[in-house]
Write a structure and sequence with these properties.
heterodimer, A: 505 residues, mainly alpha, Leucine-rich repeat, LRR (right-handed beta-alpha superhelix), 3 domains, 7-stranded mixed beta sheet, B: 482 residues, Alkaline Phosphatase, subunit A, 2 domains, two-stranded antiparallel sheet, 17 strands, 33% helix
């Protein structure tokens, strides 16, 4: 190499540098392990973040060293001329030292306290650096070591094993221990996953309904497992918070208790979940799996009843809506990032809105989207009812499936126009025909609305003939019959046999 | 200076730094940056689709009956039998320690309720005999007996209740609703208000738009004479001529807008157009004479006069025509003295119309998606007012302002009928159970209309302003709804 004239001198300098590097990393390692309750200044946290970047250098160099050592085993007759790996080892040691130092800075900047895995990783990295370092020193100072290929191969092999274990631990810290095994073929799983047990294909307790299972372990804990425990568990506890056990939720972390039974306002879990996604303090952090609004509702309900850890779900009398959320979310596939799903919904709303606005160009102020959560539409005739007729309904029919709330009061539609619209709008929940010239001809079509809850026939030409049929609509809650030629007696008679329908005169 | 030069100067003056920066902020750079950070929008100010609710609404419109001056809850709905015994005795010091009152001095005497209460057959609730008609519909209604606020005087209290902040300059709840939803009827404003017997102490700010663009403010209509001031054309000008001049004005405004980008110009253009449409539609909407005799009798309408009854009938007509937020202000409830006679008079004024309004809305199928609210800006003290140290005789005595406890009711739109939320203590001084702050009430109203109050915002002075203010502990009272 180039330093031939001062080779001996350079080798000694390099050896000394490596020696001091090894001392440094071990001293720093031991110091960092002895720390308790250390608040790292911001610069340390910043520098620590470069660890995942810098560590690629020693790994790349190590790979080169392995390739060279393997190639050296090939017969000399093949004519391969390979350089000695002395300086490669020197460089590997120096870059590894740099990586370890940054790693220690990352370790002390928080979130890894009490993490046995982090400590194992640190020691492993120091051991690897030491092995390569010592090899490098020997190759620099003791001349015959360089030339023994077999010796080189052994030390490289040992270093490789050490590096594999240490860096696997490091990767587990960042990506979770199940990272490799999650999609591994079944025969590999026992090797890759710690504590893996063969599971039956079918779930053992599929017959036990969720209502009879323990509320904490089967309803609440799975939520925390999915979106919280990646960073708040034994081996990694960001903000000193662990969420892998009920008592630890109450203890909390740096910011205080994460869970205060009965108080949604004081429970940091709920506060942080409900912050806007862009907020720095929103949990889970942006880019990680997010909680669905159903999960948030379940958690809020659970806290409001006192965050019980005992008892079956049923014994705590969940409201119907919460129960439906729990049942619905049971089969949810774990999503790595929820954002694309949200965006898809939004894009649909934007497209829908374009169509709606196009409609409103010719029919001002009539059609609107109900809310940003669904594609349900509201149609109202308030703006210019006298201009609304069967042609309007024809233009509206393209939105038929989304129409949920339709008010045609005071408009000039006819029976046929309405029948044609109702044929394509089966999901209407509220229909108002206030003062329309509508009569018994439409009744049969009304019966086809399977979700109709409110029907306003004020001032229409409906007669007793239709009332009997209308009262058979099971989903109907409210029926308005004032100013019509229907008789109260008939309604009273029908209601005697029936249901909680409210009829208004 | 000749007009031409003046015009030039004014043009230059408009290119102020603020306008320049405003234009820059809507540049391509900002749009790129926004897309890169990938923010998910909340419906309202930033959402790519405007006028979208956050969730499905229970109420499509609101009718707010605002009793200006603060009616005495102790003579209407909050039955406190202990007061009959304690009447005439000095109030225990523990209640009034460290508190401020508007006019009360020293240690006042407790004032017993000026009327008798009886049990309403339909709900079992104790009500006074001042609202006989209302008792027919009282089983439809939810009461909140635990309202409270911090303000002890009318104008700040009204501002706090209707605009969310006791200082001037904030948009009213109707303006927020208008801003969030727009108008349902193209020919009528989204927020209309009617007054009877006087104006609120907070003045026009009670229905103002604050820092929101002025197109969202409440339009004050009158029940006597022209429904809207300055709406009809001057003598001799025909409607088609009016249309031509409005078109010309709007063209000029459009040019100005291209130059300076001031949103108020757009607001002005929209208001001209709306006013033009209202010339026809408002005249029709406010024509209560077209109602049947039976209906007018049910409300107790007084044609040609301004009255709460007229306003109620108009409110129903406006609701029928899709106006989103209708607010009725009835002045004259501030009974510092002469409480009994004044209450009798005022209650007679509101009893029939209020009841008729609820019945009428129900009959027409409007009540199920209209939220009706009734109440004042605070309550009245259990103690008699002794202004200047003078104690008035029992027939003349009244009550002072009381922020710590008052009662309102709500009906319609998914509200739980016959439900009572919250409780005051034995003498009705403070709230004992389930306190509801005026911010909580506003958050609940917005929630019923389909908004999350935390996400209906407008960026002003560097803050995403909300109706419910900056506090984090505002809650929505879900128990009020079915």
């Amino acid at each position: 190499m180039i330093f031939v004239k001062y080779l001996r001198f350079t080798k000694i300098v390099a050896a000394i540098a490596i020696f001091f590097s090894l001392i440094t990393i071990w001293v720093m390692a031991i110091w960092s392990l002895s720390l308790d309750n250390y608040e790292a200044p911001q610069i340390i946290s910043f520098l620590g973040r470069f660890h995942p970047l810098i560590l690629h250098l020693p790994i790349g160099l190590m790979a080169l060293a392995i390739i060279l050592d393997i190639l050296r085993v090939l017969p000399k007759s093949w004519g391969l001329i390979l350089p000695k790996s002395t300086w490669l080892h020197v460089l590997t040691t120096l870059t590894a030292t740099l990586a370890v130092i940054h790693g220690i800075l990352l370790f002390i900047s928080g979130g890894y306290d009490g993490s046995a895995l982090a400590e194992k990783h640190l020691i492993g990295a120091c051991v690897f650096t030491s092995i390569i370092g010592i090899t490098a020193i020997l190759m620099l100072l003791v001349s015959w070591v360089e030339s023994k290929n077999f010796l080189g191969l052994i030390t490289t092999f040992i270093a490789f094993i050490t590096l594999s274990i240490a860096s696997h631990d490091g990767a587990s810290l960042t990506h979770g221990e199940k990272y490799l095994s999650q999609y591994a073929p079944n025969f590999l799983k026992p090797i890759l996953e710690p504590g893996y047990e063969e599971e039956e294909e079918s779930e053992v307790d599929v017959d036990v309904p969720i209502e009879d299972k323990n509320i904490y372990t089967n309803v609440i804990e799975p939520i925390f497992e999915r979106t919280c425990m990646e960073c708040h568990k034994e081996s990694k506890s960001k903000g000193k918070l662990r969420m892998d056990a009920y008592e630890l939720l109450l203890v909390g972390g740096n910011e205080g208790p994460s869970l205060v039974p009965h108080s949604i306002e004081d429970s940091l879990i709920i506060q942080r979940i409900n912050l806007p996604l862009e907020d720095d303090e929103h949990m889970p952090p942006e880019g990680k799996p997010q909680n669905t609004s159903q999960e948030i509702a379940i958690l809020e309900w659970w806290i409001s009843i006192g965050a019980p850890v005992d008892g079956s779900l049923q014994s705590h009398q969940p409201p119907a809506q919460i129960l439906s959320f729990i049942k619905g979310s049971g089969d949810e596939v774990v999503q790595i990032v929820e954002e694309p799903k949200e965006k898809k919904q939004e894009v649909d709303i934007i497209k829908l809105n374009e169509l709606v606005q196009n409609f409103n160009q010719n029919h001002p102020g009539q059609l609107a989207i109900m809310s940003k959560n669904s594609d349900a539409l509201i149609y109202t005739s308030f703006s210019d009812p006298q201009d609304i007729n069967d042609n309007t309904l024809k233009a509206l029919s393209v939105f038929g499936p989304q129409l949920q709330d339709v008010s045609l009061s005071q408009s000039k539609i006819t029976n046929q126009g309405l029948i044609d619209l109702l044929k394509v709008a089966p999901h209407i929940k509220a229909l108002s025909l206030n003062n329309c010239a509508i009569g018994d001809q439409v009744t049969d079509e009304l019966l086809s609305l399977k979700q109709l809850e409110s029907l306003n026939l004020y001032g229409t030409e409906i007669t007793d003939k239709s009332v009997r049929k209308i009262l058979s609509i099971e989903t109907l809650n409210s029926l308005y019959l004032a100013n019509t030629n229907t008789s109260k007696e008939l309604v009273r008679e029908m209601l005697e046999k029936k249901i909680p329908l409210r009829v208004f005169y | 200076m000749n007009p031409f030069t003046e015009f030039q100067n004014e043009k230059i003056a408009y290119q102020t730094r603020r306008h320049f920066l405003k234009q820059c902020s809507v540049g391509l750079g900002a749009m790129w940056f926004n897309s890169v950070t990938g923010r998910s929008f909340a419906a309202g100010s930033d959402h790519p689709v405007p006028n979208l609710r956050h969730h499905a609404p229970k109420a499509k419109r609101v009718i707010y009956l605002s009793m200006i001056g603060a009616p005495s809850q102790l003579e209407l709905f909050d039955y406190k039998p202990d007061l009959y015994e304690l009447g005439g005795k000095p109030i225990p010091q523990s209640y009034i320690e460290g508190k401020d009152f508007a006019f009360i001095v020293g240690t006042p005497k407790v004032m017993q309720p000026a009327v008798k209460f009886h049990e309403n057959k339909k709900t079992g609730m104790m009500v006074s005999n001042l609202l006989p008609h209302f008792e027919e519909v009282i089983d439809e209604v939810t009461f909140i007996k635990s309202m409270y606020t911090q303000e002890i005087n009318h104008a700040p209290a009204q501002l706090k209740l209707y605009t969310g902040n006791q200082n001037l300059g904030y948009p009213s709840i109707g303006a927020w609703a208008s801003y969030g939803l727009g108008t349902e009827n193209e020919n009528l404003p989204g927020f209309i208000c009617l007054t009877s017997n006087g104006n609120p102490d907070a003045g026009k700010s009670a229905w103002g738009s604050g820092f929101l663009p002025s197109v969202y403010q409440g339009v004050q209509c009158r029940s006597k004479g022209d429904p809207v001031l300055y709406l009809s054309n001057p003598e001799g000008i025909h409607r088609s001529q009016r249309q031509l001049s409005i078109n010309a004005i709007n063209k000029l405004n459009e040019q100005m807008y291209q130059e300076v980008g001031d949103p108020e110009i757009i607001a002005r253009t929209k208001q001209y157009e709306m006013a033009f449409r209202m010339q026809v539609s408002a005249t029709d909407a406010f024509d209560i004479n077209s109602e049947s005799e039976a209906t007018r009798e049910m409300y107790g309408v007084q044609p040609g006069k301004e009255s709460f009854a007229n306003n109620c009938l108009m409110a129903r007509r406006l609701a029928e025509r899709g106006v989103r937020f209708i607010q009725l202000f009835d002045w004259g409830w501030d009974h510092h003295s002469n409480l009994l006679n004044s209450m009798k008079r005022k209650c007679k004024e509101i009893d029939k119309p209020m009841t008729a309004l609820l019945k009428d809305l129900k009959q027409r199928g409007l009540l199920e998606d209209t939220l009706v609210i009734w109440g004042g800006e605070f309550g009245r003290t259990p103690m008699a007012e002794n202004r200047g140290g003078i104690e008035l005789a029992p027939e003349k005595v009244g009550r002072d302002h009381h922020p710590d406890a008052f009662t309102i009711w709500m009906a319609g739109a998914g509200v739980k009928p016959g439900y009572v939320h919250g409780e005051t203590d034995e003498i009705g001084f403070g709230v004992q159970k389930d306190p509801v702050h005026v911010h909580d009430l506003n958050a609940t109203i917005l929630d019923a209309m389909g908004f999350d109050h935390r996400h209906l915002t407008y960026n002003f002075q560097g803050l995403n302003q909300k109706l419910t203010g900056v506090g984090q502990d505002v809650k929505i009272i879900n128990e009020l709804f079915v």
